[in-house]
Write a structure and sequence with these properties.
By secondary structure, this protein is an alpha+beta fold. The protein has helices spanning 13-24, 66-76, 110-117, 157-160, 168-174, 225-230, 236-251, 291-294, 298-314, and strands at residues 5-9, 28-32, 44-47, 50-53, 59-60, 79-81, 85-88, 91-94, 103-106, 122-124, 129-133, 136-139, 144-145, 150-153, 179-188, 197-199, 205-210, 218-223, 258-270, 279-281, 286-288. The longest helix has 17 residues, at 298-314. The structure holds flavin-adenine dinucleotide. Flavin-adenine dinucleotide (FAD) binds at residues 9-15, 32-35, 40-42, 55-58, 60, 128-129, 154-156, 159, 182, 184, 222, 265, 268-269, 290-291, 296-299, 301.
């Protein structure tokens, strides 16, 4: 029996889940990512023998099937429900009062979690894809892979656009999608609110989440979109110092904070996704998934990978792209 082959661009949660679902059904799946590992916007930075989250700090589920998936990941020991206190404005409130139920944190490095999700699919790291053509992808090093039954692209839509010149039907649907940036920092400080999450009511900083995997006093701090738009072209040191001084002012910290890592997510969250779960060019066997299509957040990205994989698997002879 013929073994179908898929080539997937992007090893974030959308591409990984699509890859794992197809691989579990017997497909041969190759996943190409420009980064050094899997995870995409769930990525972390190694700190003091542990790690801190530079991307999404939480996995949250509004409904099934992702809710059941998260419960399954709890059983596997990969995530745990968030408990603790939230500091908001001037007061500390419990997680339940903050109405943040159904939020989970990874208990293993998210890149490993995403790698597990990929199952038996082959991951090619440091492999940037530059062009998509019918059933074909072309890598930055000039390698042409034209042996696929379908090609799936799961990168933020502004990063997909330059690859799609040969696929105008997909290209024309993407131009309106706009992503907003976030600067993300790992900072360490002593003192401040006795909470696990700090929600700022501020134009510069949005959120801080305590990181338990990288030694005491480590926090992930996220800027607002407005801050990131102002410091979009700034050097890391300039953006970090501005965020650190804002933080010290907001929390009234007695000692300077240490900045351990920083990252600009130029495409952090889409504010006007295409809609639906995936976008396909059936004739050319190319489809797009991810949060630029399905909407912001891990749940939507995961579900977009699942819906496309199910649709492909349901159409037996002809691939349903
Ligand atoms: C700071 C921050 C905080 C967030 N907080 C939350 C939260 O609390 N809860 C929540 O649900 N969501 C949150 N999100 C959003 C969530 O992380 C994303 O919606 C989700 O991870 C998107 O997954 P994806 O697979 O669609 O894309 P990505 O994770 O971006 O994966 C795309 C992958 O494609 C790769 N890639 C890109 N271009 C190429 C190329 N040319 N060739 C090869 N590979 C390429 C990238 O390296 C990346 O690995 C947050 C995001 C950020 C940035």
């Amino acid at each position: 029996m013929k073994k179908f082959k898929a080539g997937i661009v992007g090893a974030g949660i959308a591409g990984a889940h699509c890859a794992g679902t197809l691989a579990a059904a017997g497909w041969e799946v190759d996943v190409f990512d420009k980064a050094r590992g899997a995870g995409g916007r769930m990525s972390t930075r190694r700190i003091d023998g542990g790690w801190g989250a530079l991307g999404s700090p939480f996995l949250s589920a509004k409904r099934d099937p992702f809710r059941s998936q998260l419960r399954e990941w709890v059983r596997q020991g990969w995530v745990a429900p968030v408990r603790g206190d939230v500091w908001r404005g001037r007061a500390t409130i419990s997680w339940e009062q903050a109405q943040l139920q159904n939020h989970y944190v990874p208990t293993i490095e998210p890149s490993k979690l995403v790698r597990h999700v990929m199952g038996t699919a082959r991951l090619h790291t440091r492999s940037r894809v530059v062009t998509l053509q019918p059933r074909t992808l072309i890598l930055e090093n000039g390698e042409v892979r034209d042996d696929f039954d379908c090609v799936i692209c799961s990168v933020p839509t502004p990063q997909a656009i330059p690859m799609l010149d040969a696929l105008p039907r997909l290209l024309e649907r993407l131009h309106a999608v706009n992503y907003r940036p976030v600067w993300s920092f790992l900072m360490r400080w002593e003192g401040g609110p006795a909470a696990d999450v700090i929600k700022f009511d501020d134009h510069l900083l949005d959120l801080a989440v305590r990181q338990t995997g990288g030694g005491p006093g480590l926090w992930a701090v996220h800027s607002t979109h407005e801050f990131a738009e102002t410091y979009l072209e700034a050097a890391e040191i300039e953006a970090s110092n501005r965020a650190a001084s804002a933080l010290m002012g907001l929390l009234g910290l007695p000692w300077p904070v240490e900045i351990e890592a920083s990252h600009l997510w130029r495409y952090a969250l889409p504010d006007n996704p295409v809609g639906g779960f995936w976008l396909g060019d059936r004739e050319n066997r190319v489809a797009l998934i991810g949060d630029g299509i399905a909407g912001a957040g891990i749940e939507r990205a995961w579900e977009s990978g699942q819906r496309l994989a199910q649709s492909i698997l349901q159409s037996k002879e002809e691939l349903a792209l």
